[in-house]
Amino acid sequence: NPNFTPQQNEEVYEECSRGHGHNYIVEVTVKGNADPQTGMVMDLKKLNRLIKQEIYTYCDHKNLNQDVTFLEGVIPTAENLSTVFWKVLAPKIKDANLYRVRVCESQKNVAEYYGDVLN
């Protein structure tokens, strides 16, 4: 957090207060009624292309604190990333309703965002 002293960052974020990387897993879930002709709520290939285009293109192998314009001023925790990714993707998903964005930092550290609804 740029508003914290180095000591405060160390106390709050521990080892994550220093520069490091993650191999995030991002899961996006949509909901809606399946099309009777296709049996699909949405073409998942289309959804995957959208995720690659809008998220991975900008975030993969990047310093999230410095290199990603839409993350400027955002502390890149899994919680914040899931929220920002939702805001990026939701207006672009036309064929279904965005239900959940899940960001896995590790097997034990996971954050899910469901829009403005608290679950």
Describe the structure.
Helix content is 30%, strand content 16%. With 119 residues, it is of the alpha+beta class. The chain has a single domain (21-113), classed as 2-Layer Sandwich (Tetrahydropterin Synthase, Chain A). A 3-stranded antiparallel beta sheet has the order 1-2-3, covered by helices on one side. Strand 2 (97-104) and strand 3 (110-113) form a beta hairpin. The two termini are 27 Å apart. The mean pLDDT is 90.
Briefly note the structural class of the backbone. alpha+beta
Mean pLDDT: 90
Give the N-terminus to C-terminus distance in angstroms.
Answer: 27 Å
Separate helix tally: 3
The major β-sheet equals: 3 strands, antiparallel
Oligomer: single chain
Radius of gyration: 16 Å
- Taken as a percent bin, the fraction of beta residues is 15-25%
Brief write-up:
The chain is α+β, with helices and mostly antiparallel strands and 119 residues long.
Topology of this protein?
Blueprint (H helix, E strand, L loop, with lengths): L5 H8 L11 E7 L12 H16 L18 H12 L7 E8 L5 E4 L6
Antiparallel strand pairs: 1-2, 2-3
Question: Top keywords for this entry?
Answer:
single chain; 119 residues; alpha+beta; Tetrahydropterin Synthase, Chain A; 3 helices
